[in-house]
Specification:
There is one protein chain. Helices cover 3% and strands 50% of the residues. The protein is built from one helix and 16 strands. Strands 1, 2, 3, 4, 13, 14, 15 and 16 form an eight-stranded antiparallel β-sheet that branches. The protein has a three-stranded antiparallel β-sheet with strand order 6-11-8, with no helix packed on it. β3 and β4 form a beta hairpin. The longest helix has 8 residues. It starts with 9 loop residues before the first strand and ends with a strand.
Length: 251
């Protein structure tokens, strides 16, 4: 009997939640790849019974299951998960008299990305420097022209106090947390079978890290994350301790 066509072309959503922590699965957004790769260690026995050698026996032992996914939504929570970081959400507001070390002839980043600079004053004075002449808002930061009246700092001590407005921002601090474990859920469709539903649940995933953060490029950003599936000892006999695949039956 000939097998009916069961070809597969998948698309869908990847969701994640921290393993062992109560809470919902969170959508990772647009993902272009999700792969599971069982790894084996080959234990071979050479055939010494005849010239030319060969293999007399072989056992392939499972050593683990590698996992990778590629996401394209560089949302703060996705980057935090992929870079073992934390995210702080900052509401729009105003910074008042922020202490700044500013040198003439260059750019000075402020604590927040500024939308408008209200005033720049000497650190120990109250007289405003002149906007457009002594300082300029540039790329969300403070630019001080070479011919500015601002006096360079001494010994790296703050020489300015800056008041400015900023919009809502998120601040990511990468590589500050220990590795976490997650559950991954794939809710997909098999486009080769008229959109039959496919669901994959990876029970216990070692988080992995983002292979590369490309801040400049000619293509849309892609975050490739590699990790591994750990065994979930809570699964009973006959159930995979790694992952489960559910597919709608093809008529």
């Amino acid at each position: 009997m000939t097998m009916k066509d069961q070809s597969y072309l998948g698309s869908g959503k990847v969701l994640a939640r921290e393993y062992g922590v109560p809470g919902p699965f969170i959508d990772v957004g647009n993902c272009s790849a999700l792969n599971f790769s069982p790894q084996t260690n080959a234990i071979t026995l050479a055939d010494h019974t005849q010239p030319g050698g060969g293999e007399r026996n072989r056992v392939d032992r499972l050593t683990g299951v590698e996992m990778s996914y590629t996401f394209h939504d560089f949302a703060p929570e996705n980057l935090a998960r992929a870079l073992r970081g934390t995210v702080t959400n900052v509401i729009a507001g105003n910074a008042v008299d922020e202490a700044v070390v500013g040198y003439k002839g260059g750019l000075v980043p402020l604590l927040r990305i500024a939308k408008e600079i209200t005033s720049v004053k000497p650190a120990t004075g109250s007289t405003n420097y002149t906007a457009g002449t002594d300082y300029v808002l540039q790329d969300g930061a403070l630019f001080i022209p070479a011919d500015s009246a601002i006096v360079d700092p001494v010994g790296g001590v703050a020489n300015l106090k800056v008041t400015y407005a900023f919009g809502a921002q998120s601040v990511l601090q990468p590589i500050v947390t220990a590795a976490k474990q997650y559950q991954l859920l794939f809710l997909g469709l098999n486009e080769a079978q008229s959109g039959k539903a496919v669901r994959i649940l990876a029970h216990r995933v070692s988080g992995g890290v983002m292979a590369q953060f490309s801040a400049i490029g000619d293509e849309h950003g892609a975050g490739e994350v590699t990790g591994a599936l750990m065994t979930d000892s809570a699964k009973g006999a006959g159930l995979s301790r790694y992952f489960e695949v559910v597919q709608e039956v093809i008529a």
